[in-house]
Amino acid sequence: MLMFALMALMSSVLVYNSSKSVYAGDLNKLSWVTELKNVFIGSGDGEQTKDALEDEFIKFFPNFMWLLRDSTMSFEPTRDDDAGNDVLKDMDKGKNEGSLNQNFEKDVDVFIARCGALMKPKKAWPYVGNINGHQFTKMLEQYMSVFSETKSINVGAAVTCVITSLLQEVVEMTFKDYCNAMDSYAKASLPCDNYEIIEKHNRCMYTAMKTFKDNAKYVNDAESLEKYRNTLKEKMVQYSDGDLTGGYLDNILKENEKKSEEKKKKTSEQILAMKESEDKAIRDSVVADIDDQKEQLETDFQERSGATQIQMETLRSTHDALVTELKIVLDKMNEEKKKKQEELTRKQKELMQLS
Hints:
Layout: H1 2-10, E1 13-19, H2 24-29, H3 31-35, E2 40-41, H4 50-60, E3 63-69, H5 82-96, H6 102-118, H7 133-149, E4 153-154, H8 155-189, H9 194-215, H10 222-236, E5 238-240, E6 243-246, H11 248-354
Parallel strand pairs: 1-3, 2-4
Antiparallel strand pairs: 5-6
């Protein structure tokens, strides 16, 4: 019974396959369909009335088709088994000859067409629309888990599982797109003014919420939608008493603050380095000027010292010449004085002799 219930819950079309004529046993087996109500718990709290459960069961139950193989039904008066036997004989004859009865081939085509018309994407009724393979697997796992624990199938729990899976996927996908957009902006623009980051966040958040709405439009469970919409918002931004306290925006702003401090520190270091470089250049320039002036003074001193030495040699030569000339003059004067003294002495002697 539980396996039959699982097939009913997971299928879009349920085909009841029987062979040849309809017998009492075939009708008895159909009682399984009505007995499914005994293992079925709806999407509510399990306390629905009998009528409510039946209405919900009918809405959730897949399209039902009874396939009678190897038989035909005729509304013309015939003997009880003639028509069936004739068809069976024709089909067996056709098989022996390597071909099928043309009427049978048409009936098969009609059956396939009807199944195709009834087969639609599976829905997690009534809270979500068409589900994908991953969500279908989630719902199947939920049902199988219920099989191992109880004799009742809680469709509501399975549907909740599918809704949760769907909305979680939408939130993660949307949040990832938001993060990629913000990360690209941060990589290209940080550091910058905080208001620019907030403006970018507002644009990305608007896009994210629109994406969430588009991807979750098949979910008509307002409570779950609001819960996961708020979850997405909290992933992007969180406020407490009007102050930003968390979320991805807070992380970006903190990163911006960190990079701003790093930029200020780097700029200060660059300014200090430039100032030191300029001071060193000034010092080097002053030292170079002093060295040039010193070299010039030494050159001038050497030139002037050379000239002075030449002048001193000239003066010395002139002095020596003058001393030599003066010595000659003095010698002459001394010689004349000596001569005059001798002459004076001679004359005195002569006077003394005369007297």
